[in-house]
Write a structure and sequence with these properties.
Pdz3 Domain, Neutral Protease, domain 2, 31 strands, five-stranded mixed sheet, Immunoglobulin-like, 3 domains, 24% strand, disordered N terminus
Length: 638
């Protein structure tokens, strides 16, 4: 037999074995009773076709998780991974020499199922690369952290839509749970053991479970169909006691999205909100739910509520923009195929813009808070991001899979996932341009209704798009050379973000700097001083320098991240003294003299700066169309 013939038969045999998993559901049982000890347990039964002779098979651990934009499957925290037959025979697995997420096994003759056990160690900070989050009283289960699935011969022929799974959970006594999954029968949110209806592996990974001792489910906008739920789990009972005012704002968010997108692409929707200081804080989108992890007091402290105010609108918008309409390069058939992020300026950039707009339209943010946020973003991209001169906006999207772990020192020169914040500016300019060209008769809302609402109400599904689809969609609203418009901004290496012109000429406002901190600057100064737009650096209350803007007066004088300021003009450092020194130096005042320490060595640095404190603001331009305020107006009020 030729080697080609032997390989073909081997692939056919593996495909036949895996096909059994597609015709009979996998059973996946996850035990969360040890979640307070930061260890989760899973037992998985994978059916295979019985053969008269041993057959090779490959199982894979999910690597490329939708929404995470990189190979972030937290395999480093997998433990206790064993495979046996129903009779108890151990099956030895061997990790692939190149693909660390693949396990090669030989299925013994006559075996019709594999019994897999594994644990997940929830010991990290809970970020994308480390997996789920737990504390003494809550747990967020991401199913992809506790399963393997069979390849149908190879990656190219494996589709997770075709692999069916019957999931179940066991939670600690007294805990409750929320999820977009439907219980099989009889179970309630207070049940300790719940079997869910059989779903595809794709839908399972897209449907996390939030459980906790202190749990609350709130029915939002009960007049809207389908149903929407706010599921909260906190470290203590006081953490889930949000006010009726905030409940009403989230209900308004639900109504505003219906008016904006003219569609719903889910059977019901669950906001799964983890309120804890023991877990990482981020959001992850899903078709019928969102995984929103915020600080413990975020829903009961007014300042923290505002600070996190764009998170739920952002992740909710992803149900349309990202989950339903998805860039073709991110619409992969399984979790092993690498994703291409070149259109993340739409996936995340447009969502960032819409999340901020919806926070304002729903009343979570006041118009003033929104404008201060926009001013901060505009100032950062216009005056404090010299990395624009070598890394364009397009590359921040293309390179997403290596940039999520970036940030920190000299990030202004490196640039990281700037397609989020610059996406705000880009899509605002598009919105304002449409309004200007049509004299207010059309807006980005028209594009969204057609693009995100394509097909009307649908079950969860994926409709991919390309760059040309975006251009064609914009042209359907108002004809223009949108391709050149977009490429000019995506490929620009100019120091100042080109989208700033859209704010200064189209919005009815323009970017200015004043000596008064805006809302977000004040938050940044809760533990120090934000001198980004004056001296070119930030400093905390202990005197430690954060980032330093390349080319700023502070950088030119010799400052660097990690330096510690010991004295300001010969007095022991405090943020207040540094602020006073900036004010005293304004005009013809003296240079600012700093004594700094760098890894045990000391020196004097003199900063010759005389322009005073500078904080970004948006200032209204008289006798111009007030398009920005028109954009922020609730659709339900029009």
């Amino acid at each position: 037999m030729s080697i080609v013939r032997r390989i073909s038969l081997a692939v056919l045999s593996v495909s036949t074995l895996a096909a059994a998993a597609q015709s009979t559901p996998i059973n996946l049982a996850v035990d969360l009773t040890d979640a307070p000890r930061k260890i989760l347990h899973a037992t998985e039964t994978i059916p295979v076709a019985s053969n008269s002779q041993p057959m090779p098979m490959t199982l894979v651990y999910p690597e490329w998780i939708p929404g995470e934009h990189g190979p972030t499957g937290p395999i480093i925290n997998q433990a206790g991974f064993t495979i046996t037959t129903p009779s108890g025979q151990s099956i030895k697995w061997e990790r692939d020499l190149v693909d660390m997420y693949s396990y090669h096994i030989t299925v013994p003759a006559g075996v019709s199922q594999l019994d897999v056990k594994m644990d997940f160690l929830a010991t990290g900070s809970g970020n994308f690369t480390e997996g789920g989050s737990t504390s003494a009283n809550l747990a967020l289960l991401s199913w992809n952290t506790l399963l393997v699935y069979p390849l149908n011969g190879d990656i190219q022929h494996t589709n997770v839509d075709d692999i069916m799974v019957t999931p179940s959970i066991t939670i600690p006594t007294g805990w409750r749970f929320g999820t977009a999954l439907e219980p099989a029968s009889g179970a309630t949110e207070a049940s300790s053991h719940v079997v869910f209806q059989t779903v595809s592996l794709c839908q399972l990974v897209d449907s996390p479970v939030l459980s906790g001792r202190y749990f609350r489910e709130i029915d939002l906008a009960p007049d809207v169909t389908p149903h929407h739920y706010l599921d909260l789990a906190g470290d203590g009972p006081e953490d889930i006691a949000l006010s009726q005012q905030h409940i009403d704002q989230f209900s308004k968010l639900v109504r505003e999205t219906g008016l904006l997108y003219h569609s719903r692409h889910y059977g019901s929707y669950h906001f799964l909100v983890t309120l804890s200081d023991q877990v990482a804080h981020f959001g992850l989108e899903h078709h019928q739910s969102s995984d929103d992890r915020v600080s413990e007091k975020s829903f009961v402290d007014e300042g923290m509520f505002t600070e996190a105010g764009d998170l739920l609108p952002h992740e909710f918008t992803h149900s349309w923009n990202g989950k339903y309409r998805r860039p073709a390069g991110l619409a992969t058939a399984n979790y092993q195929e690498p994703m291409k992020g070149d259109l993340l300026w739409v996936y995340e950039g447009l969502t960032n813009y819409l999340g901020d707009i919806l926070a304002a339209r729903s009343g979570i943010w006041s118009p003033e808070v929104f404008r201060d946020r926009l001013a901060t973003i505009a100032a950062d991209l216009n005056d404090a991001r010299p990395g624009r001169t070598w890394r364009d906006l397009q590359d921040t999207a293309t390179s997403a899979q290596i940039l999520y772990d970036a940030g920190g020192s000299y990030d202004n020169w490196r640039r990281d996932v700037d397609y989020y914040s610059e996406g705000d500016l880009l899509w605002l300019e598009i919105d304002e341009t449409i309004r200007a060209k049509t004299k207010g008769k059309k807006s980005l809302n028209n594009f969204l209704a057609a693009f995100e609402g394509l097909g009307g109400n649908t079950p969860p599904t994926v409709v991919p798009y390309t760059f040309d689809d975006i251009v064609n969609g914009l042209n359907a609203v108002v004809p223009s050379d949108w391709a050149t418009f977009l490429r000019t901004r995506l490929d620009s290496n100019q120091f100042h973000a080109p989208e700033i012109a859209g704010i200064n000429t189209l919005s009815g406002y323009h970017l200015v700097y004043t000596s008064k901190p805006n809302y977000w600057s004040q938050l940044n100064e809760s533990d120090g001083l934000d001198a980004t737009y004056s001296l070119g650096f930030t400093v905390n209350s202990a005197g430690t320098i954060g980032d330093v803007i390349i080319g700023s007066v502070g950088y030119s004088a010799g400052m660097a991240p990690g330096f510690r300021i010991l004295a300001v003009n010969n007095r022991a450092f405090t943020p207040g003294l540094l602020r006073a020194a900036i004010d005293d130096a304004k005009g013809n005042g003296p240079a600012i003299s700093l004594i700094v320490e760098n890894t045990g060595y000391f020196k004097v640095i003199n900063i010759n700066y005389h322009d005073g404190e500078r904080y970004p603001q948006l200032e209204r331009v008289d006798n111009t169309p007030d398009r920005l305020d028109d954009i922020l107006a609730p659709l339900s009020g029009q």
